[in-house]
Amino acid sequence: MDEGVDPTAMCRSLVEKISQSEQLRSVTDPEILILFEDWLEELENEAVSVIKHGDSTAPKDLSRELGLSESGSMFLITKLKRDGKI
């Protein structure tokens, strides 16, 4: 990935916009939305596995294991906690 680009932050922004706006949801290409949701679910599953096997929810540990930025890992950990997955 290019340095300076945080795909997780970009995805977080997209998720927030989709959840806040039914209008945006209606104009989003359904095929792209499905791909994004599939990717995010796969990433969440990987994160849950790493957290359970490593017994750590530290963003630094998760970012190292998954190749994410620490801020991206923090977003993912927060989302997983909020969803009751960890």
Description:
This protein has a domain at 51-86. It is built from five helices and no strands. The chain has helices spanning 7-20, 22-27, 30-54, 59-66, 70-82. The N and C termini lie far apart (27 Å).
Summarize the structure.
This protein has helices at residues 7-20, 22-27, 30-54, 59-66, 70-82. By secondary structure, it is mostly helical.
Beta-strand percent range: under 5%
Class computed from helices, strands and strand pairing: mainly alpha
* Structure annotation, total helices: 5
Uncertain spans: none
- Mean residue pLDDT: 81
Task: Give the CA-based shape.
Answer: globular
The SSE string, one letter per element, is HHHHH
The number of distinct β-strands equals 0
Percent helix, as a range, is over 70%
Beginning-to-end CA distance, first to last residue: 27 Å
| Largest β-sheet summary | none
Radius of gyration: 14 Å
Notable characteristics:
0% strand, 86 residues, mainly alpha
Topology:
Elements: H1 7-20, H2 22-27, H3 30-54, H4 59-66, H5 70-82
